[in-house]
Design a protein that fits this description.
Elements lengths: L4 E6 L5 H7 L1 H4 L5 E5 L6 E6 L5 H10 L24 E6 L8 H17 L9 E5 L10 E6 L6 E5 L5 E6 L5 H17 L1
Helix pairs in contact: 4-5
């Protein structure tokens, strides 16, 4: 079975019990795996689904479902989070000059910088790198994104946050932190030169 995409989020405005009830319809859907645990900053949820380009949309639609018990009465209990998130590594940094840019301008510059970086790489390495604009799911109000891992986007993922102010280079466990940090630094430099 392929490695799933995994969302890890904190819902500080809910109790663990309320978060479990809120996620009951998702837990009752066989496409998803759900784990809820209490945390120091609020209850945490891990939601896994099949990886691929449409994974974020699937999670968004599932999170829009009204809360409560499903017909089968499924309510997620404290369990082990999906393992895909455990090996993932993401390095994040500020988007240079983001304060003066529109979201569209930030996206164009991020893509242009990524394309320049890609051209500088050996031909055999280019297939490892993917660019994804706003790849993470939109969360319900009050929820805080901790991580979004989608192996279906490729071994090394260059992403621009929805706010247009953060750049990230991540991997679902196929690249190390040092390599990702070097790629982020190079990408940031190429964006400032664009």
């Amino acid at each position: 079975m392929a490695e799933p995409a995994v969302l890890h989020a904190v819902a500080p405005l809910l109790t663990a019990r309320l978060l479990r009830e809120r996620l009951a319809p998702v837990a009752g859907d066989r496409r998803f795996t759900v784990a809820v645990r209490d945390g120091w900053d609020g209850p945490q949820a891990w939601i896994g689904c099949p990886a691929g380009p449409g994974a974020a949309g699937e999670v968004e639609r599932a999170l829009r479902a009204p809360g409560g018990r499903t017909a089968a009465g499924a309510v997620p209990v404290a369990g082990d989070p999906p393992t895909a998130g455990a090996r993932a590594v993401t390095v994040t940094g500020p988007f240079p000059g983001a304060a003066g840019l529109t979201a569209g301008d930030a996206a164009r510059l991020a893509l242009a910088g990524w394309q320049e970086l890609l051209r500088s790489r050996p031909e055999q390495d280019r297939g490892r790198y993917a660019f994804a604009l706003h790849p993470e799911p939109v969360l319900p109000d009050g929820w805080l994104l901790q991580s979004w891992v989608n192996p279906g986007l490729g071994p090394v993922q260059f992403t621009l946050s929805r706010s247009g102010r953060r750049l990230s280079v991540g991997s679902p466990g196929r690249a190390g932190r040092e390599e990702l940090a070097a790629l982020l630094a190079e990408w940031t430099l190429r964006i400032t030169r664009a």
